[in-house]
Amino acid sequence: MRRILVIGAGAVGTCCALYLQRAGFAVSLVDRDAPGAGCSAGNSGGFGYASCVPAAVPGLRRRVPAMLFDRRSPVTVRWRDLPRTWRFLSGVLANARREVAEASADARHALQRHLFDAYAPLIEAAGAGHLVEREGLLLVYETDEGLAASRYGLDMRRRRGIAVETMSGDEARELEPALSPSIRHAVMLPQVGHTTDPLLLVRTLAEHFVRGGGQLLRARVHGFEMTEDGPRAALSDGGRHEADQFVIAAGAWSASLAADLGVRVPLVAERGYNVELAGSKARFRRPINAPERHVVLTSMRSGLRVTGIAEFGSPDAAPDFRQARRILHHARSLAPAICDEEGVPWMGPRPSLPDSLPIIDRAPRHPNVLLAFGHDQVGLALAAITGKLVAELAQRRRPSVDLTPYRADRF
Known about the structure:
The chain has helices at residues 11-22, 39-42, 60-69, 82-94, 98-112, 115-126, 144-149, 151-159, 169-175, 198-211, 254-260, 322-334, 379-394, and strands spanning 3-7, 26-31, 46-47, 75-77, 132-133, 137-141, 165-168, 185-189, 193-195, 215-218, 221-227, 230-236, 239-242, 245-248, 268-277, 288-290, 295-300, 303-313, 344-352, 359-362, 369-373. A hairpin with a 2-residue loop joins strand 17 (295-300) and strand 18 (303-313). It is built from 13 helices and 21 strands.
C-alpha cells in the first residue's frame, strides 16, 4: 500500500502529500489547477490558532431572518442553489445549541493547538519561514454593542486557554495607526499568526514536494475505477491514475467524489470574496478583523487584502462581484487611508459542514480511501495537522489527535 494519490492541491492536499512523502510513501498530487490556486490563493492568510468558535452558536436562530433577507448581510444564499444547500443550513440551525457549540469548539481547538508544531517541519524544510509572521490578530469594534455581541466567543476562547487581551480604541491605534478614529474597542489574540502570501506559501511547499520526488499532475478527477476490493484508479480528464490508497482533499468539490464511494455529507461551498489593493497607503502589522462589518484586512506582499462575505451556493457558479464592492466599502470605513482604487476582486468556494468541523477519516466502506475536507475558513490553518493525521491513518498508526469528532459518518 505504498502508492498514494492525493486529490486536491490546495493547502490541505499539499500538506497531506508532504506528510505522506515524509512517511515513505510514493505520492502523486493531482488537481485541475496549479497548487494553491483555489481558496488557498485568496484567503486572509490567518493561522487561526484562536478560531475555535463555530459558526453555529446560541442566539443564531433569532438572527437568521436578518442574515438571509437583509441585502447588507454578510451571509447570503444563492436561492437557485437552495435545494443543494438546505441540508447544510438546517444542520447549522440544529447545531446552534450551547452543548453542541461547546463540543465543536473543543474539537476545533484540538486541531488548532497543533497548528504551528505541525507546520514547523514543512515550512523549515521548504525554506518558507520568511512567508510567516507571528504578530497576533486584532479584533476591532466601533460600538459597545458590537463588543458585547462578541463576548460569548471571547469567553469560549478563554475557557480553552487562548490568550485574549482587551484594549481601548486609542490603544489599538497605537499598535495600528491606520485604523479609523471610529474604533472604540479592540481585542488582541496574540497567539495567532499569518502568512503574507498564502499562494506563494502553498506553491513553495508544493515545489519542495516535487524536489523530494513527488509527482504533480494537472487533471480534474471525476470518479474512480472500482473493483470488488474498492477503488483501483482515479479517473480524470487526463486519464486513469492507479494507486494503492487515495486521499480526497478536493475542498468544495470533495462531496461528489465521496458520494461515489457511499459517503454522503452536507458539504457546501461557502463562497468568500476579497479585493486586493496594490496601491493602498493603509498598512497593518497584523490582520485586522472587524466582526461588526464581517471583514478582515491583511497586509500582503502584493498589497492590502480585504476579505469577507459568506455566500452559500454552487462552487462552480459565476461570482457576484457586487459582494466584493460591499466589503471594500466597509474597509474604507475602518481605514481612511485606503486609496480610491477599485482593486482586483476574487472569489473562492470554501468547503463547509454544519458543525464547523472537517472530515478526517477513512472512508467507511473503502479502507484504502482517506478523507480530508470540510475545513471551512480555516483550511490554511489546519492543513499541516490534517496532513500529519492523514499520514498516520495511511500508516495505520494511532492518530496524534482523537479523530472521533471528525468521522465521516457523524451526519
